[in-house]
Input
Amino acid sequence: MSHDILVAGEALVDFIPVRPGPISSVEGFRRRAGGAPANVAVALARLEHAPAFWTRVGDDPFGRFLRDTLAERGLPDRFLEMDQEAKTALAFVTHDDSGDRSFSFYRDDTADTRLEPGRIGDSTLEDLEWIHAGGVTLSSGRSREATFDLLDRGTKRGCTTSFDPNARPELWPDGRTFRRFVLDALADVDVLKATRAELEALGFDGESVASLARDALDAGPHTVFATRGSAGSVAVAVAAAESPWSKAKALHAGYEVDVVDATGAGDAFVAGAIAGMREDRNLEETLAFANAVGAAATTASGAMTALPDRSDLESMLE
Output
Protein backbone atom coordinates (compact mmCIF):
# COMPACT_ATOMS: atom_id res chain seq x y z
CA MET A 1 0.00 0.00 0.00
CA SER A 2 1.32 3.48 -0.84
CA HIS A 3 1.07 6.25 1.75
CA ASP A 4 1.09 9.92 0.76
CA ILE A 5 1.14 11.23 4.35
CA LEU A 6 4.25 10.93 6.52
CA VAL A 7 4.14 11.56 10.26
CA ALA A 8 7.55 11.91 11.93
CA GLY A 9 8.65 11.99 15.53
CA GLU A 10 8.67 10.25 18.87
CA ALA A 11 6.89 7.13 19.98
CA LEU A 12 7.10 6.41 23.69
CA VAL A 13 5.36 4.53 26.47
CA ASP A 14 2.94 6.46 28.68
CA PHE A 15 2.27 5.20 32.19
CA ILE A 16 -1.26 6.36 33.09
CA PRO A 17 -2.22 6.52 36.81
CA VAL A 18 -5.07 4.40 38.06
CA ARG A 19 -6.49 7.44 39.87
CA PRO A 20 -5.98 11.24 39.88
CA GLY A 21 -3.37 12.81 42.11
CA PRO A 22 0.34 13.60 42.34
CA ILE A 23 2.74 10.92 41.21
CA SER A 24 4.04 10.50 44.76
CA SER A 25 0.61 9.29 45.91
CA VAL A 26 -0.28 7.01 42.99
CA GLU A 27 0.52 3.34 43.51
CA GLY A 28 -0.50 1.91 40.15
CA PHE A 29 -0.14 2.79 36.47
CA ARG A 30 -1.41 1.36 33.20
CA ARG A 31 1.02 1.04 30.28
CA ARG A 32 -0.12 2.73 27.07
CA ALA A 33 1.49 3.55 23.73
CA GLY A 34 2.00 7.27 23.25
CA GLY A 35 4.07 10.10 21.85
CA ALA A 36 2.30 12.96 20.05
CA PRO A 37 3.30 11.99 16.48
CA ALA A 38 2.45 8.35 17.17
CA ASN A 39 -0.98 9.43 18.40
CA VAL A 40 -1.52 11.55 15.28
CA ALA A 41 -0.50 8.66 13.02
CA VAL A 42 -2.84 6.17 14.70
CA ALA A 43 -5.71 8.68 14.70
CA LEU A 44 -5.23 9.22 10.96
CA ALA A 45 -5.35 5.48 10.40
CA ARG A 46 -8.64 5.34 12.32
CA LEU A 47 -9.96 8.08 10.02
CA GLU A 48 -9.01 6.06 6.91
CA HIS A 49 -5.97 8.20 6.08
CA ALA A 50 -3.31 5.74 7.23
CA PRO A 51 0.11 7.43 7.03
CA ALA A 52 3.66 6.20 7.00
CA PHE A 53 5.28 6.82 10.40
CA TRP A 54 8.96 7.58 10.88
CA THR A 55 10.14 6.98 14.42
CA ARG A 56 12.93 5.35 16.41
CA VAL A 57 12.51 3.19 19.50
CA GLY A 58 14.87 1.05 21.51
CA ASP A 59 15.29 -2.63 20.75
CA ASP A 60 14.00 -3.40 24.23
CA PRO A 61 10.70 -4.68 25.68
CA PHE A 62 9.11 -1.21 25.55
CA GLY A 63 10.22 -0.65 21.97
CA ARG A 64 8.88 -4.01 20.88
CA PHE A 65 5.60 -3.23 22.65
CA LEU A 66 5.35 0.00 20.64
CA ARG A 67 6.27 -1.72 17.37
CA ASP A 68 3.56 -4.35 17.88
CA THR A 69 0.95 -1.83 19.04
CA LEU A 70 1.49 0.46 16.06
CA ALA A 71 1.28 -2.48 13.67
CA GLU A 72 -1.97 -3.63 15.28
CA ARG A 73 -3.39 -0.14 14.76
CA GLY A 74 -2.72 -0.14 11.04
CA LEU A 75 0.66 1.58 10.68
CA PRO A 76 3.35 0.12 8.41
CA ASP A 77 6.78 -0.51 9.93
CA ARG A 78 8.83 0.61 6.90
CA PHE A 79 10.21 3.68 8.72
CA LEU A 80 10.14 2.32 12.28
CA GLU A 81 13.76 2.05 13.40
CA MET A 82 14.86 -0.25 16.25
CA ASP A 83 17.90 1.22 18.02
CA GLN A 84 20.36 -1.34 19.34
CA GLU A 85 22.16 1.13 21.63
CA ALA A 86 19.52 3.44 23.12
CA LYS A 87 16.45 2.77 25.22
CA THR A 88 12.83 3.65 24.52
CA ALA A 89 11.53 6.89 26.06
CA LEU A 90 9.01 6.70 28.92
CA ALA A 91 6.56 9.24 30.33
CA PHE A 92 4.62 9.09 33.59
CA VAL A 93 1.36 11.02 33.36
CA THR A 94 -0.51 12.51 36.30
CA HIS A 95 -4.10 13.82 36.28
CA ASP A 96 -6.13 16.23 38.31
CA ASP A 97 -9.85 15.72 38.91
CA SER A 98 -10.79 17.52 35.66
CA GLY A 99 -8.65 15.21 33.48
CA ASP A 100 -5.86 17.74 32.85
CA ARG A 101 -2.42 16.19 33.02
CA SER A 102 1.27 16.75 33.57
CA PHE A 103 4.24 14.62 32.52
CA SER A 104 7.44 13.26 34.01
CA PHE A 105 9.76 12.15 31.19
CA TYR A 106 12.55 9.58 31.17
CA ARG A 107 14.16 10.63 27.92
CA ASP A 108 17.90 11.22 28.29
CA ASP A 109 19.64 10.04 25.10
CA THR A 110 16.74 7.72 24.26
CA ALA A 111 16.14 6.29 20.81
CA ASP A 112 13.70 9.03 19.76
CA THR A 113 16.47 11.65 20.13
CA ARG A 114 18.58 9.77 17.56
CA LEU A 115 16.66 10.23 14.29
CA GLU A 116 19.15 11.01 11.53
CA PRO A 117 18.84 13.50 8.65
CA GLY A 118 18.38 11.96 5.22
CA ARG A 119 16.80 8.71 6.34
CA ILE A 120 13.66 9.67 4.41
CA GLY A 121 15.03 9.61 0.88
CA ASP A 122 14.20 11.91 -2.00
CA SER A 123 12.29 9.18 -3.83
CA THR A 124 9.99 8.80 -0.81
CA LEU A 125 9.46 12.55 -0.58
CA GLU A 126 8.47 12.65 -4.24
CA ASP A 127 5.52 10.36 -3.43
CA LEU A 128 4.35 12.36 -0.40
CA GLU A 129 1.69 15.04 -0.32
CA TRP A 130 1.72 15.81 3.41
CA ILE A 131 4.31 15.78 6.23
CA HIS A 132 3.51 16.27 9.91
CA ALA A 133 6.05 16.78 12.70
CA GLY A 134 6.10 18.03 16.28
CA GLY A 135 8.20 20.07 18.65
CA VAL A 136 9.49 17.34 20.98
CA THR A 137 12.06 16.14 18.44
CA LEU A 138 13.43 19.69 18.28
CA SER A 139 14.32 19.61 21.98
CA SER A 140 17.44 17.42 21.91
CA GLY A 141 19.81 15.15 20.04
CA ARG A 142 20.21 14.49 16.36
CA SER A 143 16.44 14.43 15.95
CA ARG A 144 16.41 18.24 15.88
CA GLU A 145 18.51 18.36 12.70
CA ALA A 146 16.54 15.44 11.24
CA THR A 147 13.24 17.28 11.76
CA PHE A 148 14.52 20.50 10.20
CA ASP A 149 15.92 18.52 7.27
CA LEU A 150 12.64 16.71 6.67
CA LEU A 151 10.51 19.88 6.77
CA ASP A 152 12.92 21.77 4.54
CA ARG A 153 13.18 19.07 1.88
CA GLY A 154 9.46 18.35 2.01
CA THR A 155 8.62 22.01 1.48
CA LYS A 156 10.99 22.26 -1.47
CA ARG A 157 9.25 19.27 -3.08
CA GLY A 158 5.78 20.77 -2.70
CA CYS A 159 4.51 18.77 0.29
CA THR A 160 2.00 20.39 2.61
CA THR A 161 3.62 20.53 6.05
CA SER A 162 1.94 20.70 9.45
CA PHE A 163 3.44 21.16 12.89
CA ASP A 164 2.44 20.97 16.56
CA PRO A 165 4.86 22.62 19.05
CA ASN A 166 3.65 20.22 21.77
CA ALA A 167 5.40 22.33 24.40
CA ARG A 168 6.85 20.30 27.25
CA PRO A 169 8.91 22.79 29.30
CA GLU A 170 10.65 20.00 31.22
CA LEU A 171 12.33 18.88 27.97
CA TRP A 172 13.84 22.31 27.20
CA PRO A 173 16.68 24.19 28.95
CA ASP A 174 14.61 27.41 28.87
CA GLY A 175 11.77 29.13 27.08
CA ARG A 176 14.10 31.12 24.83
CA THR A 177 15.56 27.94 23.34
CA PHE A 178 12.09 26.51 22.76
CA ARG A 179 10.98 29.70 21.03
CA ARG A 180 14.08 29.94 18.82
CA PHE A 181 13.94 26.42 17.42
CA VAL A 182 10.17 26.29 16.96
CA LEU A 183 10.13 29.64 15.16
CA ASP A 184 12.91 28.34 12.90
CA ALA A 185 10.74 25.32 12.06
CA LEU A 186 7.68 27.46 11.28
CA ALA A 187 9.44 28.96 8.26
CA ASP A 188 8.84 25.60 6.54
CA VAL A 189 5.33 24.97 7.93
CA ASP A 190 1.99 25.47 6.17
CA VAL A 191 -0.40 24.46 8.97
CA LEU A 192 0.24 25.14 12.67
CA LYS A 193 -1.79 23.73 15.55
CA ALA A 194 -1.13 25.29 18.96
CA THR A 195 -2.70 26.19 22.29
CA ARG A 196 -2.95 29.72 23.65
CA ALA A 197 -0.10 29.00 26.08
CA GLU A 198 2.10 27.79 23.24
CA LEU A 199 1.36 30.81 21.07
CA GLU A 200 2.24 33.10 23.97
CA ALA A 201 5.42 31.11 24.72
CA LEU A 202 6.45 31.60 21.09
CA GLY A 203 6.20 35.35 21.52
CA PHE A 204 3.10 36.04 19.43
CA ASP A 205 1.01 39.04 20.39
CA GLY A 206 -2.70 39.44 21.01
CA GLU A 207 -5.32 39.60 23.73
CA SER A 208 -7.53 36.85 22.30
CA VAL A 209 -6.69 33.39 21.03
CA ALA A 210 -7.75 34.49 17.54
CA SER A 211 -5.44 37.51 17.57
CA LEU A 212 -2.54 35.37 18.81
CA ALA A 213 -3.19 32.91 16.01
CA ARG A 214 -3.42 35.71 13.47
CA ASP A 215 -0.04 37.05 14.59
CA ALA A 216 1.44 33.56 14.14
CA LEU A 217 0.58 33.68 10.43
CA ASP A 218 3.48 36.07 9.98
CA ALA A 219 5.90 33.31 11.05
CA GLY A 220 5.20 31.24 7.93
CA PRO A 221 2.02 29.13 8.14
CA HIS A 222 -0.96 29.89 5.93
CA THR A 223 -3.34 28.37 8.53
CA VAL A 224 -3.26 28.32 12.33
CA PHE A 225 -5.58 26.13 14.40
CA ALA A 226 -5.66 27.30 18.03
CA THR A 227 -7.27 24.91 20.50
CA ARG A 228 -9.06 26.12 23.64
CA GLY A 229 -9.73 22.89 25.55
CA SER A 230 -13.40 22.41 26.42
CA ALA A 231 -14.17 25.83 24.86
CA GLY A 232 -13.47 24.51 21.36
CA SER A 233 -11.07 26.10 18.90
CA VAL A 234 -10.45 28.86 16.40
CA ALA A 235 -8.83 28.80 12.98
CA VAL A 236 -7.32 31.70 11.09
CA ALA A 237 -5.86 31.64 7.60
CA VAL A 238 -4.06 33.81 5.12
CA ALA A 239 -6.45 35.23 2.53
CA ALA A 240 -4.05 34.65 -0.36
CA ALA A 241 -3.28 32.24 -3.14
CA GLU A 242 -1.17 29.98 -0.92
CA SER A 243 -4.14 29.34 1.38
CA PRO A 244 -6.74 26.68 0.43
CA TRP A 245 -9.56 28.55 2.14
CA SER A 246 -12.15 30.99 0.87
CA LYS A 247 -12.67 32.33 4.40
CA ALA A 248 -9.97 33.60 6.76
CA LYS A 249 -11.49 32.78 10.17
CA ALA A 250 -13.70 30.17 11.81
CA LEU A 251 -14.82 29.44 15.38
CA HIS A 252 -16.21 26.29 16.96
CA ALA A 253 -17.48 25.95 20.52
CA GLY A 254 -16.52 22.29 20.87
CA TYR A 255 -18.55 19.30 22.04
CA GLU A 256 -19.72 18.27 25.49
CA VAL A 257 -18.32 14.88 26.47
CA ASP A 258 -17.54 13.12 29.74
CA VAL A 259 -13.78 13.64 29.97
CA VAL A 260 -11.81 10.71 31.41
CA ASP A 261 -8.31 11.51 30.17
CA ALA A 262 -7.24 14.49 28.04
CA THR A 263 -3.95 12.85 27.05
CA GLY A 264 -3.70 12.91 23.26
CA ALA A 265 -6.73 15.13 22.65
CA GLY A 266 -4.62 17.71 20.83
CA ASP A 267 -3.03 14.99 18.72
CA ALA A 268 -6.46 13.68 17.78
CA PHE A 269 -7.45 17.24 16.84
CA VAL A 270 -4.40 17.45 14.56
CA ALA A 271 -5.41 14.23 12.81
CA GLY A 272 -8.93 15.55 12.34
CA ALA A 273 -7.63 18.79 10.86
CA ILE A 274 -5.35 16.94 8.44
CA ALA A 275 -8.16 14.58 7.43
CA GLY A 276 -10.57 17.50 6.97
CA MET A 277 -8.15 19.35 4.72
CA ARG A 278 -7.35 16.22 2.75
CA GLU A 279 -11.07 15.75 2.15
CA ASP A 280 -11.45 19.34 0.87
CA ARG A 281 -13.77 20.39 3.69
CA ASN A 282 -14.13 24.14 4.11
CA LEU A 283 -12.59 25.90 7.11
CA GLU A 284 -15.68 25.66 9.34
CA GLU A 285 -16.23 21.99 8.49
CA THR A 286 -12.59 21.15 9.07
CA LEU A 287 -12.64 22.85 12.46
CA ALA A 288 -15.82 21.04 13.52
CA PHE A 289 -14.42 17.70 12.37
CA ALA A 290 -11.13 18.25 14.21
CA ASN A 291 -12.97 19.24 17.39
CA ALA A 292 -15.10 16.11 17.21
CA VAL A 293 -12.06 13.85 16.85
CA GLY A 294 -10.31 15.61 19.73
CA ALA A 295 -13.34 15.45 22.02
CA ALA A 296 -13.97 11.77 21.35
CA ALA A 297 -10.35 10.97 22.24
CA THR A 298 -10.86 12.18 25.84
CA THR A 299 -13.55 9.64 26.73
CA ALA A 300 -11.22 6.80 27.84
CA SER A 301 -7.86 6.44 29.54
CA GLY A 302 -4.82 6.57 27.26
CA ALA A 303 -4.02 8.65 24.20
CA MET A 304 -4.98 5.96 21.66
CA THR A 305 -7.73 4.11 23.50
CA ALA A 306 -10.72 6.21 22.46
CA LEU A 307 -9.56 7.45 19.05
CA PRO A 308 -12.74 7.48 16.94
CA ASP A 309 -13.49 6.03 13.54
CA ARG A 310 -15.98 7.47 11.07
CA SER A 311 -19.04 5.84 12.65
CA ASP A 312 -18.07 7.11 16.11
CA LEU A 313 -18.18 10.69 14.83
CA GLU A 314 -21.53 10.63 13.05
CA SER A 315 -23.77 11.51 15.98
CA MET A 316 -21.36 14.13 17.29
CA LEU A 317 -21.10 15.88 13.93
CA GLU A 318 -24.86 15.84 13.47
Observations:
- Residues 38 and 225 are 20 Å apart (CA to CA).
- The first strand starts at residue 5 and ends at 8.
